[in-house]
Write a structure and sequence with these properties.
416 residues, mainly alpha
Length: 416
């Protein structure tokens, strides 16, 4: 059985480099990459490009859409644990298809609606599907299947979102300036219908063992790997100590990107300068993914967690001290190092520590917490920027230092 062979530590996959992994498991890694790439439809870096147009159409201030966005994201977050259980039960090909169809409908709603209620429903569909279910499905299936070379496999899959961060903002910005923001939602819907869904059915076959959590877990039991339930994980003190670290980058990145127009205005930056920062973020994180994947396979995810936030805090410090245009790429570049690190470290850590059988339930709960922090970020950053950029970012740096302290305490409780 392929899964049993892969889960066996003596299997050659343990020693595969990135190219060998791609040659051996192209369909599975392509499935993961595809989900991460198309999650852009519900990611903040994409939705933030529509804030000005949506607000201008309705005569709103930034705070109005921020409030709707945060409320909708909270609703989406609380649906994720139920969906995570389904990823542990169902064939993931059907989960992927259903999610894409819901996102497609959300895109069509956003392309044509003028009423705030329908706007909220459309945002709910793309946020739940994009930021939530697509990334949850990819990280869960890749993390539970690739027990050996897990770090490299996750890195190759997560490159999908880095590719989207590099490609989508410049393209979408130019398209919206030429055709309007509503037409961009139609393009996103077409991409889901004619690219994503057909590729899912092409990459994953009907009876593919990759789809089922119970099959992977049965193979893991042959190697004496114990699977923890969600309730057991939530009671684990080590889990409680590292949650703030897991939430740091999603919270800070969402807050900065969603309020990028206000930040640009306060610092006299151009929209092009901020878009360049986002592209640098995607490019830098893509490079970082390769490094982190190899380090995880060599040293383990839990050891890397202690250091992962330090580059981001350095970037925030530079942004406080420097007003020049180069502070934007410096901030996003250093944030990307931490972002790439935590993006691979977190899913690898859950699979490494808690086993494959209930990984969807565990990760959906973590994703709930991440989405809650992302939901709070836009409005909290909007309020914080009223005090000034410096004061707002100093508070964030203090939060980062607390995270490093807690991660250090967690490492000391690690079993010998």
């Amino acid at each position: 059985m392929l899964v049993s062979l892969l889960l066996n530590p003596s299997h050659p996959a343990q020693y595969m480099n990135y190219l060998q992994l791609l040659k051996t498991y192209p369909r599975y890694l392509g499935y993961g990459f595809l989900h991460y790439f198309f999650s852009f439809v519900g990611q903040t870096f994409f939705i933030s490009l529509f804030v000005a147009g949506i607000s201008e159409d309705r005569g709103w201030g930034t705070e109005t859409f921020s409030g709707i966005y945060s409320g909708v994201t909270l609703c989406a977050a609380f649906l994720l644990p139920m969906i995570g259980q389904q990823i542990d039960r169902l064939r993931v090909r059907y989960v992927s298809t259903t999610t894409a169809l819901i996102m497609l409908v959300g895109c069509l709603i956003l392309a044509f609606t003028y009423h705030w209620v329908w706007l909220a429903i459309g945002v709910l569909a793309i946020r739940l599907g994009g930021q939530g279910v697509l990334t949850l499905t990819a990280s869960t299936t890749i993390g539970r299947f690739f027990t050996v070379a897990r770090g490299k496999s996750l890195s190759l899959s997560i490159l999908g979102i880095s590719a989207a961060e590099i490609i989508i903002p410049p393209f979408a910005t130019a398209f919206i300036l030429t055709n309007g923001y509503r037409q961009m939602w139609l393009v996103a819907a077409a991409m889901l219908a004619f690219i994503f869904i057909p590729l899912v059915w092409l990459l994953i076959r009907r009876h593919d063992l990759f789809q089922r959590a119970d099959t992977v877990a049965a193979a893991a039991e042959e190697t004496d790997q114990v699977s923890w339930t969600r309730a057991q994980v939530l009671r684990d003190r080590r889990f409680q100590l590292i949650v703030p670290t897991i939430l740091f980058i999603p919270f800070v990145f969402t807050g900065i990107v969603f309020n990028q127009s206000d930040i640009a205005l306060l610092r006299s930056y151009t929209p092009a300068n901020m878009a360049l920062g986002l592209s640098i973020y995607g490019f830098t994180r893509a490079i970082m993914l390769f490094t982190v994947g190899s380090l995880i396979d060599r040293y383990s995810a839990r050891r890397l967690l202690l250091y992962v936030l330090l580059p981001a805090m350095a970037g925030l410090t530079i942004f406080i001290l420097v007003d020049a245009n180069w502070a934007v790429p410096a901030l996003f570049g250093l944030m990307a190092i931490s972002g790439g690190g935590i993006t691979v470290t977190a899913p690898a850590l859950w699979a490494e520590r808690y086993g494959p059988r209930f990984l969807g339930s565990i990760k959906s709960t973590v994703t709930l917490l991440v989405v809650l922090s992302s939901a709070a970020a836009p409005i909290l950053f909007t309020w914080g920027l009223n005090w000034g950029i410096t004061s707002c970012l100093l508070v964030i740096i203090g939060y980062g230092l607390l995270c490093v302290l807690l991660a250090g305490l967690e490492l000391r409780t690690m079993p010998k």
